[in-house]
Amino acid sequence: MGKTTARNQGSSVVPRIADFRVLVVPGLDGSGPEHWQSRWQRLYPAFERVEQDRWDVADLPVWSARLQEVLAQDVRPTVIVAHSFGCLTTVHRVGIDAGRIVGALLVAPADPEKFKVADVVQVRLPFPSVVIGSTDDPWMSAERAEHWAGVWGAEFVNAGAVGHINTASGLGDWVAGQEVLAELVKRVGNRNSVAST
Known about the structure:
Mean pLDDT: 91
Number of helices: 5
Distance between the termini: 31 Å
Low-confidence stretches: 1-11
Oligomer: single chain
Shape: globular
């Protein structure tokens, strides 16, 4: 399934990434300097990272609580850019309280079954969201990623054979991912402007 193309209607203002707080939510072991999440933070200095005390321990309640702490530090509407276990962290947090989250880009989600958390991430996201999966991701097949996108009510984008969509994938600044994020931001902005009228 390809990504939805947002169209600019009439003279309406196209929402920009800068209109939102963007939180980067890494997975296990964090994201090293050449990971696309880290590269995006250098490209967009306003992006903030959710830091965990223990990047080597995938503890969903603990990671989710830390995400909540960071969310509570700012009143702006927030778009999440998550990878791997960070995707499960995001979904778990939304299941408790979506708070200021208005959109989510969930890249190469970790398989909830493998982490034995499937029962606590059966959450339909109440805002625009996109799951990006890979056909040769060793952590979760594209078919499983698409299944979970359906559970979460998210659009699914198949990125092709790019592994776990991490540093080893050699994506550099991952322009295609930035394009998906930009389209998601348009959807978020258009949805919020309709809701406020």
